[in-house]
Specification:
This protein has 221 residues and is α+β, with helices and mostly antiparallel strands. The protein contains 3 helices and 7 strands, in the order E-H-H-E-E-E-E-E-E-H. The longest helix is centred in the C-terminal third of the chain and has 97 residues. The N and C termini lie far apart (136 Å).
Length: 221
């Protein structure tokens, strides 16, 4: 982790000096005229806005993110390196957590939406080099992870057809066995009428023989 303070422009220093001098002047007026409310208002502004912004604007480069602090109301704003899309040195005077117009534009994606923020580190070149190196290293790691994921997907897709072929062969064998069973059943059904016909023929022959024997006995009597 490395901490960078903010560059301080002459205008920022002038505003800080004016507020401090005004607060001292209001305290002098309070002593002389016993009018206390201007000093109270200015001290509140100094304590909660001017001094925290002037002394508390900094940028920390962590292992996997950048942390931005500016005053009491913009604290620990985190941007992951893997979400950063571009780092561009640029001059700008818009409202941002900066104390100088010489700034670094950071473009990033958060919750599916593109955002941008300006920072003004005191060691400008070192900050830009470090943050670009971190962003590039995380981009390479992301590419490696994507390649590994694609390789695993390809391996699983190659293994799937072998499984499907085995399943197809098993299904074909089951169908063959079912066909053979059905054929044997049909054959037995076709063969069964012949047996009944042979049985009926034997029965009729026996009955005819019995009838002839009965006729012979009658004639003998």
């Amino acid at each position: 982790m490395k901490k960078f303070g903010s560059r301080i422009s002459p205008l920022a220093f002038l505003i800080f000096a004016l507020f401090t001098l005004l607060t001292i002047a209001t305290y002098m007026i309070w002593i002389i005229t016993s009018v206390w409310w201007p000093s109270l208002v200015l001290t509140i502004i100094d304590i909660f806005i001017v001094y925290p912004v002037y002394f508390g604007t900094n940028y920390r480069l962590d292992k996997d993110k950048i942390i931005i602090n500016c005053g009491l109301f913009f604290v620990n704003y985190k941007i992951a390196y893997q979400d950063i899309m571009a780092v561009i040195p640029k001059k700008d005077s818009s409202f941002a957590p900066c104390l100088d117009t010489q700034r670094v534009l950071i473009m990033y994606i958060k919750q599916g939406k593109s955002h941008k923020i300006f920072v003004s580190p005191n060691m400008f070149d070192e900050f830009v080099c470090l943050i670009t190196d971190n962003v590039l290293s995380f981009a390479k790691e992301g590419e490696k992870e994507n390649q590994d994921a694609s390789d695993t997907k390809l391996a699983t897709s190659e293994n799937k057809p072998t499984k499907s072929r085995k399943e197809k062969t098993n299904v074909a064998e089951v169908k063959k066995s079912e066909k053979s069973k059905s054929l044997t059943k049909v054959r037995t059904r076709k063969a069964s009428p012949k047996k009944t016909q042979s049985r009926s023929k034997t029965n009729t022959s026996k009955a005819s023989k019995e009838n002839t024997s009965v006729k012979k006995v009658k004639t003998a009597t």
